[in-house]
Amino acid sequence: MTATLSDTLLRDDRRTALIDDLTTVVDQEVSDKHGVSGAVIKTAYAAAKKMRPGLVPGALNRMLDDFVVALDPMYGDYRAAGGAGFGPYLVSRSDEASEALLSVSDGRAQRTSMESLRKVYEKLRPTGRKNVAEALPRLGAVIEQHATAG
């Protein structure tokens, strides 16, 4: 039986490196945003990080288990199909992958005790699917890198 994504990525010996790489993905995705909406995202991201240093890796760590569970079925399908990379595979299922990931962050945003962060999230949520879809190539590459690491 093939190990699930959860079995592989949620091991204590892999978690910290995965969180570090996912934080880099978030930083890169925010940095790549352009135009008016990009400026809004960059400003909100900088403000959130300033209000709470360590916010991004901390949030990723808290949500990692749920993110991995959300991606597990897609990763299993990808492995069974023998695809050419998990990033391109996620892109091919962009709507499903984006919604699976956003359902995790939506739930966390609803339960947060930090009203200011909830408000920022709610302002950015309408463009969430587009932003998550744009991140899928990088996200998939990082997931695959860590899932296949010795």
Main features:
single chain, 150 residues, mainly alpha, 83% helix
Low-confidence parts, pLDDT < 50 over ≥5 residues? none
The gyration radius over C-alpha positions equals: 15 Å
The string of secondary-structure elements, in order, is HHHHHHHH
> Based on DSSP secondary structure assignment, what is the total number of beta strands?
0
Mean pLDDT across every amino acid position? 90
| Secondary-structure class | mainly alpha
Give the helix level as a range of percent. Answer: over 70%
Provide the number of structural domains. Answer: 1
Instruction: Figure out the total of helices.
Output: 8
Strand content: under 5%
Spatial shape? globular
Distance N to C terminus:
17 Å
> Can you summarize the main beta sheet?
none
What does this entry look like structurally?
The protein has 150 residues and is an all-alpha fold. It has one domain (5-147). It is 83% helix and 0% strand. Helix 2 runs antiparallel to helix 8. The longest helix is centred in the middle third of the chain and has 27 residues, at 55-81. The model has no long low-confidence stretch (mean pLDDT 90).
Quick recap of the structure?
The chain has 150 residues and is mainly alpha-helical.
Topology:
Blueprint: H1 5-9, H2 12-31, H3 35-51, H4 55-81, H5 86-92, H6 94-111, H7 115-124, H8 128-147
